[in-house]
Amino acid sequence: MGAEGNQDGTVGKALDVLDMVAAAGKPVRFSDLLGTSIYPKATLYRFLQTLTHQGMLSHDPDHGTYALGVRLVRLAHAAWQQSSLAPLARPYLDDLAAITGETIHLAQMDMGQVLYVDKRNAARPVDMFSSAGKVGPAYCTGVGKAMLAWLPDDALKTVLSRQSFHRFTPHTYADPAALITELHAIRARGYAFDREEHEPGIICVAVPILTKAGRVIGAISLTSTTQRTTLAALEACADKIMETAGKIAAEAESWRFPEQHS
Amino acid sequence: MGAEGNQDGTVGKALDVLDMVAAAGKPVRFSDLLGTSIYPKATLYRFLQTLTHQGMLSHDPDHGTYALGVRLVRLAHAAWQQSSLAPLARPYLDDLAAITGETIHLAQMDMGQVLYVDKRNAARPVDMFSSAGKVGPAYCTGVGKAMLAWLPDDALKTVLSRQSFHRFTPHTYADPAALITELHAIRARGYAFDREEHEPGIICVAVPILTKAGRVIGAISLTSTTQRTTLAALEACADKIMETAGKIAAEAESWRFPEQHS
DNA sequence: CCTGGTGGTTCCATTATTTGAAACTTAGTC
DNA sequence: GACTAAGTTTCAAATAATGGAACCACCAGG
């Protein structure tokens, strides 16, 4: 990760640099970036200048480091509100959380990865961006598999090609063929399980959120630990989760497509 | 807002378009943007293409609308974590919230506006992006004034020139001169009040977060309503808030500048 | 006080990219 | 079927990005 050959004119390159800073996870010096970047010194420098000037990056002159800028936080607020399912799903997730008392995730697909856009946590209620905005693998999480299972074939192929298939636990599906079999089972069943495939001790039941037309637009999951409960017990909530997913889908449909003339 | 004459080469223009979509607050059609934009049809079109291809925008082909893309949410997660005070301030805010039981805001300055990066709410604990990422005016909020009061003169001048000085309530400082007098008082006192200057019935005490060198890096406020309490009662917490601000500043100092060799 | 080195910034002729008026293609109306 | 509005593509001219090399500032060691 870092020096992708990706292009889209100047804008694409600039965003590439932005990603690079994001990937670092901490403030980075010019020379650090120069190492991982495919761009020559002067070019990289100008990009950093521009991005900083635009508020997408912030530059600490005392330490000569660059970090992601606050303008991003502002934009993300708008993005989260206008193009994620989170705002309209909120009341339904609240209900589900109240009924089940378990941790709930709301996720969407982004670039072949699972992007968590909201969360309800029984134990620690406040979590903010620290959980919303997080990304995870698609092939070994409940929400990920739930979304993959309803993806059209061509899209699925693309997404699968981006998966790393790293074996996180003994239960991880570590190759595409096995995963595809699992996806068929999920689709037949209507919901997905995570049988400690990503983290030991963590299990979940996940349900896709589908439009009337059958397109996946997201997924919800109910998560717990093997110490607290069993898969079978979680499965008992499947109906409730699917009901919630249905309500969110309906809401999304009417929100995203408000004008349906006579 | 919308058609700024702002420039920074191609990248700046593209980000300008991004802002435009964000400003709309809802999915927009090509022609909507064309109206507010200073760019000709073909140019705007190509920017939208590029941004969409990059995942910064999402395009709904059924309705021909563009909205902010989820990639932003992902970037913001990183931005929030690596360049806002929120992650390191969290435990201290939790403490302060526990002690006082009131609503707490953590804010930073961005482009002359107040950007809220975290929040603790007594009543409704979960709030996510809906509050983090929000922006507000600087000249008539507690956190805003607290930060302005410690800004160096030249920076203050720039920021003041960007304020709208809209009179939200009868108590709003509606012109720079009056505000500057208030800022001096705040600096002398060590903390700022919001005397229903932004919203009727909402009052707060706010404290700046300052580095050892005296630079403002943010502010915290304790907010309440005139129905529940009085300014004098809130002021009683001022010491506690300043203590919290001090701890956050110390933490920030050691986090942002970790390597201090022997 | 020089000297060598590293990290960062600026120059500028060359080159590739962006630009935008106009032509074109849909999709929707009367 | 002709008319209009909305969105998409073309292409020569204009502009902006490129990156090698020179430059600057700071530091450590001699």
Q: How does this model look, in words?
A:
Two copies of one chain form a homodimer. The first copy, chain A, is an alpha+beta fold. Chain A has two domains: 9-72, Orthogonal Bundle (Arc Repressor Mutant, subunit A), CATH 1.10.10.10; 84-256, GAF domain (Beta-Lactamase, 2-Layer Sandwich), CATH 3.30.450. Chain A has helices at residues 9-24, 30-36, 41-53, 70-83, 86-100, 142-149, 153-161, 176-189, 231-235, 238-256, and strands at residues 28-29, 57-60, 65-68, 103-110, 113-120, 135-136, 192-195, 202-210, 216-225. In chain A, the strands form two sheets. A six-stranded antiparallel β-sheet of chain A has the order 6-5-4-9-8-7, sandwiched between helices. Chain A has a three-stranded antiparallel β-sheet with strand order 1-3-2. In chain A, helix 5 (86-100) packs antiparallel against helix 10. The radius of gyration of chain A is 20 Å and the shape is globular. Mean pLDDT of chain A is 86; it is low at 1-5 and 258-262. Chains A and B meet through helix 1, helix 3, helix 4 and strand 5 of A and helix 1, helix 3, helix 4 and strand 5 of B. Chain A binds a DNA duplex (30 and 30 nucleotides) through helix 1, helix 2 and helix 3.
